[in-house]
Amino acid sequence: MTNSGIPKFQNAAVRVGDGDDARAPLKKIEVDLPGSDQILVKINWSNSSPDPETKGIAGHEGAGVVVSVGDNMHQKWKVGDRAGVKWVHSICGACEFCTNVTVPGTFQQYVVADGNYTSRLPEGVEDEEAGPIMCAGVTAYTACKRSSVRPGQWIVIQGAGGGLGQFAVQYAKVMKRELCQRLGAEEFVDRQLSEDIPAEVKRITKYGAQTVLVLPPSKEAYALAPNLVRPGGTVVVVGLPHDESVIAGARPKQMVLDRLNFVGSVTGTLKDVEEALDFTARGLVHPILTKGTLAEVDKYFELRHQGQLAGCVVLKVA
């Protein structure tokens, strides 16, 4: 393993405080070096998700270039390769489900990553696009796959203007209509302007949608979802509410008589990430991005909290 050119210290956005008063000012911290089964990635672009952090460093998706390779990883990686770091940092490869571990995130210049579970970025996918695909993109893509919706059927995407939703709209189109010349939703229902969303959905789809993706982590979204699908329809559960009292489901009578299906979906496999990246490499799916810098992380957290951001926010790490 060679470490020439790697600085001893780096910039990182480190959380200070708790709750709504928390901030993440830039601080100097040491650069960790990779172990034998790891690689070190210099992050170029990171997401701006205010997710849980380790050692005060959040950020669970990012993209950059490999600057150091562990002794056991030289067959797979070399310095200069482009790599994407995901929310699920690693898998054990032994248990039935391969659970993940908790590590410092991508709000830092250099990230140690599992060499076996980091994704190689293909040509045609820019770093600022690849970062969001590592979590939001593959999560939306996998949810579309889990929905089992077929060509000619309706899929309702709650939260379509958000980080996951803008991916889901595009993946739903190209996955079912590969040769489509334009990307976009067939219809749009504004929840703030519509007095009766279920009635509006049924006006458009006749009986309700075959599938609804619940992306917003809100009680309102989960309460609404069963009323948007037709008998035999599927509700795909994706958004994770902070409120533990929120339940995904419906009244037993409605579930029985309408034969409703509820399916959980979270992120995706290495193969799912590869497939999601391929859609962007072929020019079929491109995230809608708002770009900032790591030093502006607090600003974008606040704008997201106020609901003033659409699509994904990516931060330049320098």
From TrEMBL:
<dbReference type="InterPro" id="IPR013149">
    <property type="entry name" value="ADH-like_C"/>
</dbReference>
<comment type="similarity">
    <text>Belongs to the zinc-containing alcohol dehydrogenase family.</text>
</comment>
<dbReference type="GO" id="GO:0004022">
    <property type="term" value="F:alcohol dehydrogenase (NAD+) activity"/>
</dbReference>
<dbReference type="InterPro" id="IPR011032">
    <property type="entry name" value="GroES-like_sf"/>
</dbReference>
<keyword id="KW-0862">Zinc</keyword>
<protein>
    <recommendedName>
        <fullName>alcohol dehydrogenase</fullName>
        <ecNumber>1.1.1.1</ecNumber>
    </recommendedName>
</protein>
<dbReference type="GO" id="GO:0046872">
    <property type="term" value="F:metal ion binding"/>
</dbReference>
<dbReference type="InterPro" id="IPR020843">
    <property type="entry name" value="ER"/>
</dbReference>
<feature type="domain" description="Enoyl reductase (ER)">
    <location>
        <begin position="17"/>
        <end position="315"/>
    </location>
</feature>
<dbReference type="Pfam" id="PF08240">
    <property type="entry name" value="ADH_N"/>
</dbReference>
<keyword id="KW-0479">Metal-binding</keyword>
<keyword id="KW-0560">Oxidoreductase</keyword>
<dbReference type="InterPro" id="IPR036291">
    <property type="entry name" value="NAD(P)-bd_dom_sf"/>
</dbReference>
<keyword id="KW-0520">NAD</keyword>
<dbReference type="Pfam" id="PF00107">
    <property type="entry name" value="ADH_zinc_N"/>
</dbReference>
<dbReference type="GO" id="GO:0005737">
    <property type="term" value="C:cytoplasm"/>
</dbReference>
<dbReference type="InterPro" id="IPR013154">
    <property type="entry name" value="ADH-like_N"/>
</dbReference>
